[in-house]
User: Which sequence fits this backbone?
């Protein structure tokens, strides 16, 4: 949901907008199959909890990207391709 909300707020495409929901769907399907013997409430808790647990990692990766991007050569910079 964070990718979809970010896209709506910024009114532009952002990386992961298409792949994040796909990956979340796949993860949900795997959790459903793996936890077939668990109550539905427990499966939902695992699904939501595991997605929430990834948020700090996403924020760290975004912060690292902002610091590394200025160090990249111009040829590797996305602005080169957007002109």
Assistant:
């Amino acid at each position: 949901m964070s990718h979809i909300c970010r896209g709506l707020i910024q009114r532009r495409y952002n990386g992961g907008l298409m792949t994040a929901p796909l990956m979340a769907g796949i993860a949900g399907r795997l959790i459903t199959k793996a936890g077939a013997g668990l109550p539905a409430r427990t499966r939902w808790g695992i699904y939501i909890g595991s997605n929430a647990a990834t948020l700090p990692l996403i924020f760290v990766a975004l912060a690292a990207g902002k610091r590394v991007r200025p160090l990249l050569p111009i040829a590797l910079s996305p602005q080169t391709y957007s002109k």
In short: Residues 19-34 form the longest helix (16 residues). The chain has a mean pLDDT of 76. Residues 26 and 32 are 10 Å apart (CA to CA).
